[in-house]
């Protein structure tokens, strides 16, 4: 039975070392992660799973240590268990730092998305203002051309009014001359002696 306990203890120690290395690698991956939030969340989930497996193996090692027949082996194994627990506490702190950095990254990405939306809205507002400015400039140009047309129309109407007055005066004079001629002819025919 002692031989099977030794094998079990060795296997637990090997798995603890293996999980420890995997956790360290994942924490390094989290530090190096510059990708999307989903990748960071996936790495955090893997770290939690490895921690669970590491805790379970440490508990198994502790149980095996308590079941040891010889007191010296029991104390050595319990010291190893305590050492692993202390290391795990340091790694737990790193895990919480990783989770904190993950939440900070998530918040920063949210802020980045909001800023991107604000920039997009600003670009749309600028585009709308540019279109409005173009419309106003077009309307101003059209107003200037209409103003020129209106001034030309005013000049033509003034000229027409002057021409009309001149025409009336000429018609009046022609009519007066005609009447004078008719009167002269009538006077000469009816009153030749005068």
TrEMBL record:
InterPro entries reported for this sequence: Sec20, Sec20_C
Cell compartments where the protein resides: Endoplasmic reticulum membrane
This protein's UniProt keywords: Coiled coil, Endoplasmic reticulum, ER-Golgi transport, Membrane, Transmembrane, Transmembrane helix, Transport
UniProt superkingdom: Eukaryota
Membrane topology (UniProt): Single-pass type IV membrane protein
Biological process according to GO: retrograde vesicle-mediated transport, Golgi to endoplasmic reticulum
Domain Sec20 C-terminal: 100-190
GO molecular function, one term: SNAP receptor activity
Coiled-coil positions: 37-78
Main subcellular location of this protein, as a coarse class: endoplasmic reticulum
Entry annotated with the keyword Metal-binding: no
Transmembrane segments: 169-186
Pfam families: Sec20
Family: Belongs to the SEC20 family.
Annotated PANTHER family: BNIP1-RELATED (PTHR12825), VESICLE TRANSPORT PROTEIN SEC20 (PTHR12825:SF0)
Name used for this protein in its record: BCL2 interacting protein 1
């Amino acid at each position: 039975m002692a031989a099977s306990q030794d094998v079990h203890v060795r296997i637990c120690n090997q798995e603890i070392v293996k999980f420890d290395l995997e956790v360290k690698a994942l924490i390094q991956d989290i530090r190096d992660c510059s990708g999307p939030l989903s990748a960071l969340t996936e790495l955090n989930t893997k770290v939690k799973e490895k921690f669970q497996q590491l805790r379970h193996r440490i508990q198994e090692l502790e149980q095996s240590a308590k079941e040891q027949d010889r007191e010296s082996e029991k104390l050595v194994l319990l010291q190893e268990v305590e050492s692993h627990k202390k290391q795990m506490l340091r790694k737990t702190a790193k895990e919480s730092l990783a989770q904190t950095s993950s939440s900070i990254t998530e918040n920063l990405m949210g802020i980045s998305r909001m800023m991107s939306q604000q920039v997009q809205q600003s670009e749309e507002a600028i585009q709308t203002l540019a279109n409005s400015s173009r419309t106003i400039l077009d309307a101003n140009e059209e107003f200037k051309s209409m103003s020129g047309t209106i001034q030309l129309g005013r000049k033509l109407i003034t000229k027409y009014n002057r021409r009309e007055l001149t025409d009336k005066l000429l018609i009046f004079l022609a009519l007066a001359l005609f009447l004078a001629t008719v009167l002269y002819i009538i006077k000469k025919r009816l009153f030749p002696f005068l």
